[in-house]
């Protein structure tokens, strides 16, 4: 007790009134720094610094053996921007997005609408429909590598039985990208399904009931109530799927290695081959910058929806 | 009138409902069958002898399951080792991400400090840097650290997550401010309040983050491919690729390896479906 | 701990002054109620005592010691929140025990203290439940339990009864007074409800716009309000205050109010006259106005019945009106009827129209 009053007396030293009380705030700021420190250090080391470094590497041209590099300013960026390889790679990536996103979205929406019913056993169906979300890109690719194999594929058997010609899916330049897209659509279906189903579940039941009372049939309800209410979710899914398409690598690496005839050489695969196979770090970095700018625009769009979800959603 | 009209009107309605339900079940089942086909065929092939896989027309039933193939997959492909590596890496990343996100989210939700909003934007900005863009400098960094072919190299770059910080901050913000004041009166500083009140109250969000982090870490492909050559550190995803490259004609072996690589995470999905869905629907990006 | 004191305390939030030049001494073991309308700064004042806010300037004193820079957890005080602030994930037992767990109290002792607090508050049966399984009244008790379990020097309560229904509020009021008596500790209690203040307080401190208006025992605050704000805040319906001029009448000084004249208490009237004011504010409580055909003429606008009494709202002029409180057994006047009102000098309050302060 004596000790306590002694320490309290030291606190009681007279102080001028009205001074700025810095100590507690400083302490809080210091504590915040400690809490944010680990994340800040990691982001700086593995996101911000390497981003700047990527821009910087784009200014250097490597010799053919990857042994030395010279500063060439924007020349290399311009070279990359004007090169046929880069254009083809961009077009391939764009086509890949075009093949995967709308189809994936429509299929995901269909599954979500099917599963958004109150039926016994729905849990099982929902688990099955979500199952590909847990499938890794490597597992999915190896599965489809087998399914699409011309010498044992069930798919080709099915085609032949129905009177079509068998297709050398991964070996035919015209069919390789659709084949990779098919794999990707399947792989993303679980994610698309989950997101859209969650969106469906946030639509108030009263809206459907009131539409029913107003005499709207199932189709009319879908187009006049469900889809408009679902549009933020659908847009969110589109953006995420598109970003995914631009970042795809694993399925290409396992199914086609960019071939045949570069027909599946998407942007990330091109960065990988330039940077780690051909030792053209500068070229890879310049392509990386292009990828960054594309994803940046898509992410900014996504943040707008993310924000909206935060304010109104969940 | 009303009583006599009743049975007449009720019957067609009920029949229509039963028919509707039957149609729905049919559609659901067909969709489920299509989605499951690749998985089913994978399992079937993994249990058939190689000759049977090549038979034409294809045989999609297992008459004589070859369990031995699984044993061989473990042995020839060192899949056991890869599974352990994946488990170590994914667990470490999950724990690390939960810790760094809890700390950072707490600061953003409960502390007042200068530049708080600016720092939050900086955190979010890290989401805009795709890993694929920065692989070259990151490879150089890890190489400089001497972390190629090491657990550190696989784990450390992924220990912080802006998405997780964002997810947890949203959850933490729903903790009433009165609870912070009550805990302060009850004698708890920030750490006590964080561990004893905020985290337990936000366990749903923390669980969602943990499951989500584990899934992403387990399924990583590009980075482990770049920095591991040594069997001792390869993850199961890369191991699977290696298995395919070196046993391209042994489809039963490859398919058994695929099942082994997929099984743990499918089990995770079934066990933690709720958390995973929560994680995904809070605006996640599947990488 | 002895006294809690505010010394020249000001608290700003940005441009908003929540508490302004606040000086107040709270006696040891006193039940002090901080009363005022919402947004008057009373909760901020309480949080300053708790250590949940730091003053912008000035000091908070416990006895002779400035505790301004002492953290909340080291001030040896407990607080009951309006929302109760129970930890939703903990059982009642864990909630009550929570403040003991940081204080290195042996487990057996903790169990004993929780049991004792639970017995006091009648919570024995509820100890293993979660807050979500309790009624509002039970939650309020758990919040009290968490406060009393560690025997603090002072209890701070922020509108603790406002989430209870009317019947339970009356019952809990009496229990809190009894608890205060048994614990012999200082209670600082914040409310906007004058009935709570009048029934529970040793002294009431009335606040408005961040400033202290008056402090005193309930009866004194009611009988001698220090300014027109207090006069109209305490009492229901509020005191009638109208503008008047002073004149000489038969028995001394009288006030000319719209509709007639009323007598003034001689001492106060003399003091007012000496101040050479341009007019006066005259206040009479509704219960002190009589409907007996007196000298102030008014027109009945509305009669409100509350069951046990009636409020008669009378227009004195197009701008001014007065409320008269009538017992239920007195037949009320009709709407539109002209009535005569009387006030007795002893029940008339005078205020300075410039400062709104009381004139005695």
- The CATH class designation of the largest domain in chain C is Alpha Beta
Count the strands of chain C?
A: 21
Instruction: Look at the structure and name the CATH superfamily of chain A.
Output: MetI-like
Q: Could you name the CATH topology of the largest domain in chain C?
A: Rossmann fold
Question: What would you call the quaternary organization?
Answer: heterotrimer
Derived structural class of chain A: mainly alpha
- In CATH terms, what is the fold-level topology of chain A? MetI-like fold
Spatial arrangement of strands, main beta sheet of chain C: 6-7-8-3-9-10
Helix content of chain C: 25-40%
Q: What share of the residues of chain A lie within helices? A: over 70%
Cα gyration radius of chain A (Å): 28 Å
- Uncertain regions of chain C: pLDDT < 50 for 5+ in a row? none
Approximately what portion of the residues of chain A adopt beta-strand conformation?
under 5%
Mean pLDDT across every amino acid position of chain A: 82
Count up the domains of chain C.
2
Q: Strand order of the main beta sheet of chain A, please? A: 1-2
Biggest sheet character of chain A: 2 strands, antiparallel
Low-confidence blocks of residues of chain A: 1-20, 310-314
Sheet of most strands of chain C? 6 strands, mixed
Which structural class fits the helix and strand makeup of chain C?
alpha+beta
Care to describe what's here?
The complex is a heterotrimer of chains A (about 325), B (about 290) and C (about 350). In chain A, a hairpin with a 6-residue loop joins strand 1 and strand 2. In chain A, helix 3 packs across helix 13. The N terminus and C terminus of chain A are likely disordered. Chain A contains 13 helices and 2 strands, in the order H-H-E-E-H-H-H-H-H-H-H-H-H-H-H. Chain A has a two-stranded antiparallel ribbon with strand order 1-2. Chain B is mainly α and about 290 residues long. In chain B, helix 3 packs across helix 14, helix 9 packs across helix 10 and helix 13 packs antiparallel against helix 14. Chain C is an alpha+beta fold and about 350 residues long. Chain C has 2 domains: about 230 residues, P-loop containing nucleotide triphosphate hydrolases (Rossmann fold), CATH 3.40.50; about 120 residues, Nucleic acid-binding proteins (OB fold (Dihydrolipoamide Acetyltransferase, E2P)), CATH 2.40.50.140. The model of chain C has no long low-confidence stretch (mean pLDDT about 90). Chains in contact: A-B, A-C, B-C. At the A-B interface, helix 2, helix 4, helix 5, helix 6 and helix 8 of A face helix 1, helix 4, helix 5, helix 6 and helix 8 of B.
């Amino acid at each position: 007790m004596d000790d306590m009053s002694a320490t309290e007396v030291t606190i009681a030293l007279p102080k001028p009134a009205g001074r700025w009380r810095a100590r507690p705030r400083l302490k809080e700021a210091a504590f915040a720094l400690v809490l944010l420190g680990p994340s800040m250090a990691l982001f700086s080391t593995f996101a911000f610094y390497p981003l700047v470094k990527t821009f910087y590497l784009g200014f250097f041209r490597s010799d053919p053996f990857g042994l030395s590099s010279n500063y060439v300013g924007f020349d290399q960026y311009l070279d990359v921007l004007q090169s046929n390889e880069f254009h083809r790679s961009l077009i391939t990536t764009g086509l890949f997005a075009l093949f995967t996103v709308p189809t994936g979205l429509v299929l995901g929406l269909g599954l979500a609408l099917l599963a958004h019913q109150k039926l016994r056993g729905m849990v099982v169906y929902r688990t099955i429909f979500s199952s590909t979300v847990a499938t890794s890109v490597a597992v999915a690719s190896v599965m489809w590598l087998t399914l699409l194999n011309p010498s044992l594929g069930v798919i080709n058997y099915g085609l032949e039985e129905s009177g079509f010609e068998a297709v050398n899916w991964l070996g035919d330049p015209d069919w390789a990208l659709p084949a990779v897209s098919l794999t990707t659509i399947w792989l993303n279906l679980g994610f698309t399904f989950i997101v859209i189903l969650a969106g469906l579940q946030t639509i108030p039941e009263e809206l459907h009931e009131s539409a029913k009372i107003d005499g709207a049939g199932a189709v009319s309800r879908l187009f006049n109530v469900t889809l408009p209410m679902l549009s933020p979710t659908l847009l969110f899914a589109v953006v995420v799927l598109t970003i995914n398409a631009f970042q795809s690598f694993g399925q290409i690496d396992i199914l086609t290695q960019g071939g045949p005839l570069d027909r599946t050489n998407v942007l990330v695969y091109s960065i990988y081959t330039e940077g780690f196979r051909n030792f053209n770090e500068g070229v890879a970095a310049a392509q990386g910058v292009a990828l960054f700018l594309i994803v940046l625009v898509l992410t900014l769009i996504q943040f707008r929806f993310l924000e909206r979800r935060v304010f109104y959603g969940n | 009138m009303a009583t006599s009209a009743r049975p007449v009107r009720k019957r067609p309605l009920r029949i229509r409902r039963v028919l509707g339900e039957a149609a729905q079940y049919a559609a659901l089942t067909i969709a489920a069958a299509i989605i499951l086909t690749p998985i089913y065929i994978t399992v079937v092939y993994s249990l058939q002898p190689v000759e049977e896989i090549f038979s034409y027309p294809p045989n999609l039933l297992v008459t004589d399951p070859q369990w031995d193939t699984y044993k061989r997959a473990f042995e020839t492909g060192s899949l056991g080792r890869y599974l352990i590596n994946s488990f170590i890496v994914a667990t470490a990343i999950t724990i690390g991400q939960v810790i760094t996100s809890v700390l950072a989210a707490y600061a953003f939700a409960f502390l007042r400090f200068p530049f708080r909003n600016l720092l939050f934007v900086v955190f979010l900005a890290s989401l805009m840097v795709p890993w694929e863009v920065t692989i070259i400098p990151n490879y150089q960094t890890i190489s400089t650290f001497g972390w190629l072919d090491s657990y550190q190299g696989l784990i450390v770059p992924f220990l912080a997550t802006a998405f997780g910080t964002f997810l947890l901050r949203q959850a933490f913000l729903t903790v009433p401010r009165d609870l912070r004041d009550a805990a302060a009166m009850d004698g708890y500083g920030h750490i006590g309040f964080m561990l004893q009140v905020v985290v337990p109250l936000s366990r749903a969000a923390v669980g969602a983050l943990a499951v989500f982090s584990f899934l992403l870490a387990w399924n990583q492909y590009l980075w482990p491919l770049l920095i591991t050559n040594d069997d001792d550190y390869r993850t199961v995803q890369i191991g699977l690729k290696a298995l395919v490259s070196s046993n391209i004609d042994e489809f039963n072996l490859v398919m058994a390896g695929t099942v082994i690589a997929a099984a743990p995470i499918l089990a995770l999905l079934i066990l933690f479906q709720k958390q995973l869905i929560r994680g995904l629907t809070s605006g996640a990006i599947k990488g | 701990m002895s006294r809690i004191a505010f010394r020249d305390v000001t608290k700003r939030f940005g441009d908003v002054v929540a508490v302004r030049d606040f000086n107040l001494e709270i006696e040891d073991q006193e039940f002090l109620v901080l009363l005022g309308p919402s947004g008057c700064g009373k909760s901020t004042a309480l949080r300053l005592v708790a250590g949940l806010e730091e003053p912008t300037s000035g000091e908070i004193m416990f006895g002779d010691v400035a505790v301004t820079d002492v953290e909340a957890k080291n001030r040896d005080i407990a607080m009951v929140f309006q929302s109760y602030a129970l930890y939703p994930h903990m059982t009642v037992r864990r909630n009550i025990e929570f403040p003991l767990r940081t204080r290195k109290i042996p487990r057996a002792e903790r169990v004993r203290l929780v049991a004792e607090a639970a017995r006091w508050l009648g919570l024995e049966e509820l100890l293993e439940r979660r807050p979500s399984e309790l009624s509002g009244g039970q939650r309020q008790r758990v919040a009290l339990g968490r406060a009393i379990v560690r025997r603090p020097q002072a209890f701070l309560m922020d509108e603790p009864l406002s989430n209870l229904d009317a019947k339970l509020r009356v019952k809990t009021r009496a229990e809190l007074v009894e608890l205060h008596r048994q614990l012999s500790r200082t209670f600082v209690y914040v409310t906007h409800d004058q009935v709570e203040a009048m029934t529970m307080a040793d002294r009431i401190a009335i606040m408005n716009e961040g400033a202290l208006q008056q402090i005193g025992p309930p009866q004194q605050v009611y009988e001698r309000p220090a300014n027109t704000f207090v006069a109209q805040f305490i009492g229901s319906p509020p005191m009638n205050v109208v503008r008047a001029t002073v004149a000489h009448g038969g028995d001394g000084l009288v006030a000319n109010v719209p509709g007639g004249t009323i007598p003034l208490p001689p001492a106060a009237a003399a003091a007012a006259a000496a101040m050479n004011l341009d007019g006066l504010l005259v206040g009479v409580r509704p219960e002190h106005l009589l409907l007996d055909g007196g000298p102030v003429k008014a027109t009945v606008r509305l009669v409100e019945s509350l069951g046990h009494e009636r409020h008669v709202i009378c227009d004195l002029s197009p701008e001014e009106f007065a409320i008269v409180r009538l017992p239920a057994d007195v037949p009320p006047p009709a709407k539109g009827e002209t009535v005569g009102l009387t006030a007795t000098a002893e029940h008339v309050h005078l205020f300075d129209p410039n400062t709104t302060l009381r004139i005695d």
